[in-house]
Amino acid sequence: MDFSDYRRLDATAMAQGVADGSFTAEELLDAATRRLAAVNPAINAAVLDLSESAREQLAAVPPAGPLHGVPLVVKDMDATL
Questions:
Q1: Closest CA to 33 of 18, 54, 15, 9
Q2: Among 29, 42, 73, 74, whose Cα sits 20 to 30 Å from the Cα of 10?
């Protein structure tokens, strides 16, 4: 999945696509991670990249919840460490 495909999806469409097998959570994570790597050096919006942790969680945790596999950004780091 490239970013032009990724950006057309809202969170519910991402969750539905993962649930119905149109694409995987890993594909979404890869697209989000590539975009973060491309733009973050210029804007410095993400101070903590947890994409590898997310990848490990996807491999270890069975799908659960309505937004399983949907990448997200946490604004405040207090709850992430």
A1: 54
A2: 42
Per-residue pLDDT tens over the stretch 12-44 = 999 999 999 999 999 999 999 999 999 999 998
pLDDT band per the 50, 70, 90 thresholds, residue 61? confident
C-alpha to C-alpha distance for 32 and 7, rounded to whole angstroms: 9
CB 18 within 8 A of CB 25: yes
Spatial separation of the C-alpha atoms in residues 37 and 46, rounded to whole Å: 10
